[in-house]
Specification:
Strand content: 5-15%
Number of helices: 7
Strand order of the largest sheet: 1-2-3
Largest sheet: 3 strands, antiparallel
Radius of gyration: 36 Å
Number of strands: 5
Order of helices and strands: HHHHEEEHEEHH
Distance between the termini: 91 Å
Structural class: alpha+beta
Oligomer: single chain
Helix content: 25-40%
């Protein structure tokens, strides 16, 4: 009964302690049969063992080097991993998962740029391949390395990695293409309609060149 302490004799407690390492349901059944204790449920029995630290010694985890009881035993046809429903979703020999990072595999970054896996060691992980920006990789194959202080600006859709869709511009020019603020409102290049972008880029280049001349620096 809930809330009522269940009494155990010294003999009963000693018996429970002696069988505490048995499987709980077997130890409980043996105790009830030996002492005719129908008033002690398996839950009560477990609680007594836990209070006294009489543990089974089992953790429920496989120990290192332990052999599973079903090792080498094939599953019956139509059950478990051999069930037709399971078979339909199992990998077949030679299949590769959808996220296999093979050479020239492509993905889209969180910023919306296409990245490609190339045959070049990753300096951070040491892996034989690494991802790079595909538009830059293609542009440099056609035109050589991007000079220091310069960047590639997308003229249209970022997913279009053809070198003709990217223009080499000074990095100092990029802020002029990012739009204005509440004191100097200007339309950002990336937010403008396609027909307006050439004009915005041309104006930004003129402003950049004029500032460079005033500062006595090369444009």
């Amino acid at each position: 009964m809930k809330g009522r302490q269940i009494p155990y004799s010294a003999e009963e407690r000693e018996f429970i302690r002696s069988v505490s390492q048995w499987p709980r349901h077997e130890a409980h059944a043996a105790f009830c049969q030996k002492f005719s204790r129908d008033d002690v449920s398996l839950k009560n029995f477990n609680a007594l063992c836990k209070r006294n630290g009489w543990l089974t010694g089992r953790t429920g985890c496989f120990a290192k080097g332990q052999t599973p009881h079903n090792k080498g035993v094939p599953c019956e046809p139509g059950r478990g991993g051999r069930h037709p429903n399971a078979r339909r979703t199992q990998f077949k020999k030679g299949n590769q998962p959808h996220n296999t990072n093979y050479l020239h595999h492509e993905r889209v970054s969180k910023d919306g740029y296409v990245e490609i896996s190339i045959d070049e060691q990753n300096p951070h992980t040491g892996f034989e391949r690494r991802y790079v920006l595909k538009h830059k990789w293609l542009w440099e194959q056609a035109n050589g390395p991007v000079p220091k202080g310069y960047a590639l600006k997308c003229l249209g859709d970022r997913l279009n990695t053809d070198p003709s869709n990217w223009e080499l511009v000074p990095r100092a020019l990029l802020p002029r293409l990012a739009g204005g603020n509440r004191y100097n409102p200007k339309l950002a290049f990336d937010d403008a309609a396609p027909e307006l972008r050439p004009a915005i880029l041309a104006v930004a280049k003129l402003e950049h060149q004029a500032r460079a001349i005033r500062k006595g620096r090369p444009a």
